[in-house]
Write a structure and sequence with these properties.
Layout lengths: L12 H32 L15 H20 L6 H12 L13 H7 L10 E4 L3 E5 L8 E6 L15 H21 L4 E7 L8 E6 L10 H8 L3 E3 H11 L15 E2 L6 E2 L2 H8 L16 E3 H8 L1
Antiparallel strand pairs: 1-2, 2-3, 3-5, 4-5, 4-6, 4-9, 7-8
Helix pairs in contact: 5-7
């Protein structure tokens, strides 16, 4: 993209993405060939042979990032470990309820389920904000904005939005009301914030949970394209729309196509494209454009002005 270079693409991100795709595909194919070659040698060498020098490749940095992401997941899981054996409690709950799920969740992805089923084990946690018979409210351990909290259903069997039916509408409305209440509390502390309430189409953690997230996205925990696109594309389903659709159709329309998470980075206000997260963050910190028109309808966005109008 450097205009001083003879091969400048002149902000043609489509062509740039194609070139990068071809380059990384070639690198990956060569890397696989090297690994397969090394494995073939190991199978024919004596067991006591001196280990070969590690092969490095441009993919090493990607592997490192993935390892760091796994470490973050592990840390997130450990931070909400109860004082008792909640795994045994969970198995008992499942047997008593007769609930079975088709998706297999990793141990780290069970953290919200454990907390929702047994909040009494987490009362000393700084993350836990509220406990009711229907839900718990907690700070996201890795917030993607200045304010980011979760309203987690306590009903066993509701792993995600895909499990929600019309009979669960009263619960969804109570969860939404709780989210609005906490958004209002945060707005009283900082009137410059704007909030959006919604669900991920395909959540990474078990147990139905509603995100209440400020639209500044000013957080060190927002690190990659997946983080950004999970809150700013059609992957994020507004709570008011989910409630309306379930009321009319009996269930929510959910797309399992996660390719949207790999889409180019675009500002959630002006929709301008950006090559990486640092440049995107720099832009949104100063972007004064209005939010897209569809977000300005049906209370999809909550701000000090809309909350004030609701109260009058």
């Amino acid at each position: 993209m450097n205009p001083m270079r003879p091969d400048c693409l002149k902000n043609d991100y489509t062509k740039g993405s194609k070139i990068l795709h071809e380059a990384y595909t070639s690198l990956f194919e060569n890397f696989v060939a090297i690994v397969q070659s090394c494995m073939g040698k190991q199978n024919t060498e004596p067991a006591l042979e001196k280990p070969a020098t590690a092969v490095t490749s441009p993919n090493d940095s990607k592997t490192k990032r993935e390892c760091n992401h796994d470490s973050e997941r592990t840390k997130k899981h450990k931070l909400v470990q109860p004082n008792t054996s909640s795994n045994q409690a969970r198995e008992g709950d499942s047997k008593r309820s007769g609930v079975t799920t088709t998706k297999t969740w990793g141990s780290w992805a069970q953290a919200l389920y454990e907390l929702a089923m047994h909040p009494e084990n987490y009362k000393n946690s700084d993350s836990l904000l509220e406990i009711s018979d229907d839900f718990v409210v907690l700070n996201d351990l890795y917030p993607k904005a200045k304010r980011h909290v979760l309203v987690v259903s306590r009903k066993d069997g509701l792993d995600s939005l895909a499990d929600v039916k019309k009979e669960h509408l009263p619960l969804l409305r109570r969860m939404h009301s709780a989210g609005v209440k906490w958004a209002q509390k945060f707005l009283e502390e900082d009137s410059s914030l704007v909030f959006r309430l919604g669900y991920h189409s395909v959540p990474s953690m078990r147990q139905l949970h509603l995100h209440i997230i400020s639209q500044d996205f000013n957080s060190a925990s927002l690190k990659n394209k997946k983080h950004w696109n999970s809150f700013t594309t059609t992957f994020f389903l507004d709570s008011v729309d989910v409630i309306e659709e379930i009321d009319q159709r009996g269930s929510a329309t959910i797309s399992s196509d996660d390719r949207v998470l790999a889409m180019e980075l675009r500002c959630h206000r002006c929709r301008s494209a950006h090559p990486n997260i640092p440049k995107l963050k720099s832009h949104i910190a100063s972007c004064k454009s209005s939010f897209p028109s569809h977000l300005l309808q049906k209370d999809r966005l909550l701000s000090s002005s809309t909350m004030h109008m609701d109260c009058t």
